Amino acid sequence: MSSAGASDPHGNQPVKTAGPPPERADATLVLLHGRGADAESMLSLCNELNLPTIAAIAPQAAGHTWYPQSFLAPIDANEPFLRSALHRVDTIVADLMNRGVRSESIALLGFSQGACLTCEFVGRHPRRYGAVIAFTGGLIGPPGTPRDYAGALDGTPIFLGTSDPDPHVPFARVQETAAVFESMKAKVDLRRYVGMGHTINAEEFAAAKSLLERIVVGANRKQD
Question: How far is CA 29 from CA 20, 155, 169, 178, 196, in A?
Fold first, then answer.
């Protein structure tokens, strides 16, 4: 691996897309896969949403994992992979905005490790997003990690759904994540599912679709 690849392992990985071009879409959904999964699996999830006017962008993680250790491990234990993953998402969002896509029309959705990456990215890059959807995930770092993120989420609707107990994500971390986002002026919907297992249920899926439909309706009103 080159020195550039070693410092930015996700930088040259493929990005899968579906739907209309973001410039002509009602919204753009950035999808972040979990450990061991891939971008294609996230696009299939997007297909199930059946929202044809939404553009979908799904980056692929190197080696099918965004970072090697648990999201509860010390931050340094997951470097440079975590830094590269956050930069990858930032590059995608920045490119969309440079192409004229408003942040209020950008939604981020992740599952498991991808949900953790979604949460951490949003914490570090706060703005008014169209929606943030984290299926079983939370902010990254060991217990006691400072959460002094600068900026505000300005009413961004955030859905946090999780099983309790979950084999990878303690419910206490999801609660902490909700509290942090609320302090950053987000509108948080936290839902706990006892004994659900490490998966996505129909209610979570419906909640996500509802948030995305709101962005579509808002986009259509602006065109009228």
Answer: 11, 18, 24, 21, 26
| pLDDT tens for each residue of 198-224 | 999 999 999 999 999 999 998 776 665
pLDDT at residue 4 above 80? no
Q: How far apart are CA 79 and CA 127, in angstroms?
A: 25
Contact 4, 31 (CB under 8 A): no
pTM, full prediction: 0.96
Backbone phi and psi for residue 31, each to the nearest 5 degrees, phi listed first? -110, 130
Q: Choose the CATH number for 3-223 among 3.40.30.10, 3.40.50.10090, 3.40.50.1820, 3.40.50.1220.
A: 3.40.50.1820
Question: So where are the chain's domains?
Answer: 3-223
Q: How far apart are CA 173 and CA 56, in angstroms?
A: 28
- Tell the burial category of 171 from Cβ atoms under 10 Å away from its Cβ (0-12, 13-18, 19+): middle
Per-residue model confidence as pLDDT tens digits over 57-71: 999 999 999 999 999
What's residue 224's pLDDT? 53
Task: State the average pLDDT for the chain.
Answer: 95
Angle at 53 between CA 112 and CA 217, to 5 degrees: 90
